[in-house]
Amino acid sequence: MFSRWRQENFFRYQPAHDGLDGLDAYETEPDDPACLVGDPAGLVADRAVRDAIRIATYNAQSALARLIALHHAIAEDEARSLVHEIFKAPADLQVRGDTICVQIHELSAPDGREHWLHSART
C-alpha cells in the first residue's frame, strides 16, 4: 500500500517539479562545456585535507603555547589565548640571513607583551 502511494505521488508531482512530460521527446541538446561538475572523490580528499590542516594548526598552537609558557609564568590556557590573539594581530616580518624575525604589534591587553620578537630558524 505504501509503495503504491509513493508511486502515485511521484507521477502526480514530478511533472510539475521536474518536467517529467518533457522526457518523452527524442530531441538532444548539446552539453554546456562551461558547466562545472563537482568530483565526489575531490570532496572526500578536501575533507581529509581540512582535517589535516586543523590538526597541524592545533599542533602549531600547542607548540607555541609551550614556548611562551617557558618564558612567562602563565597557565597553559592563558598561553593558548595569547597565541590565538597573536595570530590575529598585525606583524612585521624580517629575514636576517637564515632567521625569520616576527614583531607583533599592539595586542589588546597591553601588559608588556605587546612587542614580541620571536625568531625561528628556516
Secondary structure blueprint with pairings:
Layout: H1 2-18, H2 40-71, H3 76-88, E1 91-96, E2 99-104, E3 117-121
Helix pairs in contact: 2-3
Overall shape = elongated
Structural class: alpha+beta
What is the H/E order? HHHEEE
Question: What does the average pLDDT come to?
Answer: 77
How many E-type strands? 3
Low-confidence stretches: 112-122
- Give the helix proportion (percent range): 40-55%
User: How many helices does DSSP assign?
Assistant: 3
Question: What is the CA-atom radius of gyration, in angstroms?
Answer: 29 Å
Largest sheet: 3 strands, antiparallel
Report the β-strand fraction as a percent range: 5-15%
The side-by-side strand order for the widest beta sheet comes to 1-2-3
What is the distance, rounded to the nearest whole angstrom, between the alpha carbons of the first and last residues? Answer: 71 Å
Keywords:
14% strand, three-stranded antiparallel sheet, 122 residues, alpha+beta
Summarize the structure.
This protein is α+β, with helices and mostly antiparallel strands. It has helices at 2-18, 40-71, 76-88, and strands at residues 91-96, 99-104, 117-121. Residues 112-122 have low confidence and may be disordered.
